[in-house]
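Reply to dn_fold:

You asked what the input looked like. This is it:
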Amino acid sequence: MTKILYVSSLCSERLLQYIYDTAEQKPEQAAQKFHRLLAQGFTLNPDNCLITTLSTIPVTPFNHTRRFWFEPSEKVNHLKFCYIPMLNMRYFKNIGVFVYTFFTVLLWGWFRIGQNKMILCDVLNFTVAFASFLAGKLSFTKNITIVTDLPDGTMLNGVTKKSPLASLYHKTVNFMLCRFDGYILLTEQMNEVVNPANKPYMILEGLVDINMQNSENILRNKAKEKILIYAGGLYEQYGVKMLIDGFQKVKEPSARLHLYGNGEMVKDIEDYTKKDPRIVYKGMVPNKIVVADQLAATLLINPRPSTEEFTKFSFPSKNMEYMVSGTPMVTTKLPGMPSEYLNFVYIFEIESIDGIHKTLEFLLTKNKVDLHNFGTNSKGFVMENKNNKIQAKRILRFFGLMN
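and this is what came back:
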């Protein structure tokens, strides 16, 4: 049986809710959901692996006033969450987390010498990734990294890009990135950037919760209005302004555009809602609320422009969440989206205000039964091929950790 140590900032939904309620800045939920689903996917393969998590708590001195964090481990649905104790103060936090992670991973590897074992780390959590990377080398442990985005130094809160610390960060990341034993990437295009040594890699563009098979999307429970939902970063570069402008041209009086999330456009959305009361800003809410609202919606929208350079290196997790809801999704044709998805999503063929307007007008005139059946087929596709149990098993097989 393979022993896996999953090193990231993953925390339980209980702890994440506490941080959400008490933090000055709400935590990022997409990454938490991705890592939770994958870790839980390994627990659904108990005959093939035994997983342990080691997590840095996702707070910083800039977004949370609590300074001492000593959270006890907890077990939820066969997944044990183990947290790194830390002093949440600038510099002290990263130094303490690094030292604790390094020796914990080192001892974990040494005590399992000769066993089939693997460290799985989130490279975007630099401190724990670098500590586990070094400890893995010293304990002769296979070291696989998950790359859900390109490292860009955003973890260096309050540090200018031209500072010596930022320069050291980028040099260290580049040194570490090309020396992992294997890579789990969201898109094929990522491989050229993060894997110059051409080590083994696999594409895992996303995954869905296998438990969503018990969540029914029922046509009679749909909202009376034709609700269109966008949930994610509210940034112009993500196509949100173009979406709002396109929606305003839609003539359907029962149409509603509900926006969830946070970002630079929040300050402008109030003006939009005054001009068009069909536009509603829902704010930052827990993911479980967004998921429930998606079941009652007519369409789920991702307007992210396919021409932006960064889209080559991303497969938005919201796409998977949208599809597994059973409500049909309309999106742009992102370069990192495999062709197998194209039969299960509607596409904005022309990425412009008029293009979005015309596509929405067309879809809103479709028979509601046809729309519902399309969404049901999309859910069936991801449930059958992309659920977290299957995706975890793919990782084990690809890296030679099971037959």
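Residues 397 and 403 are 6 Å apart (CA to CA).
Hope that clears it up.
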